[in-house]
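The records we work with from here on pair a chain with its fold. Taken together, the tokens spell out the fold as the letters spell out the chain. The record below shows the convention in full.
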Amino acid sequence: MSETFFVKPATRGATIIDPTSNEALDAKGAEKPRDPYWLGLVHRGDVVEIDPPASDEPKSKSAKS
């Protein structure tokens, strides 16, 4: 199991505060630690787990000679 996961608020307009940064969780979601705080929010239905956003970087780079 990963130490982090991506979550977003379950309800549009809901404000979920990150206890580490004291900032609101972005509506598009963010990577958070898989700890009792965030897992509790998932369990209560306050946030939902989402797939990580697609990376803008290519997975492999071709070496040119």
Notes: The first helix runs from residue 36 to 44. The chain has a mean pLDDT of 89.
